[in-house]
């Protein structure tokens, strides 16, 4: 099966990785931190970084022809699980605004650090795009 690389123009240009890979009707979404177009981690805390990182994931998914409701699996890597949990209501509200109330299979994993030292969160996922 052939696959297509998905690298939206609105996201930072990847080097050594792809933002997404479309294989058949499955989209493998590479890990996204809270990098903006200028390759800077957005200022603020976990809520602001979640918003940017999840927006980057959704941007890649839409570029592949999918929608947020097509997400079937999401993994969230966190440098401070307690901070994420303390802001869970706000993060849940933002999720629902961006992706609706349907949730995929998910995992949250605490890590000591991410690729960018300032990053508090990284989100990756898998989506299956139904025939429309």
**Poorly predicted regions:** none
The string of secondary-structure elements, in order, is: EEEHEHHEE
The average pLDDT is 95
End-to-end distance: 21 Å
Q: Radius of gyration from the CA trace?
A: 14 Å
Total number of helical segments?
3
Which term fits the overall shape?
globular
Instruction: Indicate the proportion of strand residues.
Output: 25-35%
Into which percent range does the helicity of residues fall? 25-40%
Please summarize the sheet with the most strands.
6 strands, mixed
The helix/strand class is alpha+beta
Q: What oligomeric arrangement do these chains adopt?
A: single chain
Question: Order of strands side by side in the largest beta sheet?
Answer: 1-2-3-6-4-5
Q: How many E-type strands?
A: 6
Describe this structure in words.
Helix 1 (46-63) packs parallel to helix 3 (88-99). Strands 1-2-3-6-4-5 form a six-stranded mixed β-sheet, covered by helices on one side. By secondary structure, the chain is an alpha+beta fold. It starts with a strand and ends with a strand. It is built from three helices and six strands.
Topology:
Layout: E1 3-6, E2 20-23, E3 26-32, H1 46-63, E4 71-78, H2 81-86, H3 88-99, E5 105-110, E6 121-128
Parallel strand pairs: 4-5
Antiparallel strand pairs: 1-2, 2-3, 3-6, 4-6
Core attributes:
single chain; 132 residues; alpha+beta; 3 helices; 6 strands; 28% strand; globular
Could you give a short description of this structure?
With 132 residues, this protein is an alpha+beta fold. It has helices at 46-63, 81-86, 88-99; strands at residues 3-6, 20-23, 26-32, 71-78, 105-110, 121-128.
């Amino acid at each position: 099966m052939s696959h297509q690389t998905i690298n939206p123009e609105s996201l930072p240009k990847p080097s050594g990785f792809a933002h997404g890979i479309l294989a058949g009707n499955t989209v493998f979404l590479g890990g996204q931190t809270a990098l903006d177009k200028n390759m800077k981690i957005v200022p603020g805390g976990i809520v602001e970084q979640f918003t940017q990182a999840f927006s980057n994931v959704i941007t890649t998914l839409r570029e592949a022809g999918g929608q947020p409701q097509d997400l079937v699996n999401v993994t969230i890597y966190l440098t401070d699980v307690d901070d994420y949990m303390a802001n869970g209501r706000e993060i849940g509200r933002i999720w629902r605004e961006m992706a609706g109330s349907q949730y995929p299979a998910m995992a949250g994993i605490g890590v000591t650090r991410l690729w960018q030292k300032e990053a508090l969160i990284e989100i990756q996922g898998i989506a299956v795009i139904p025939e429309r």
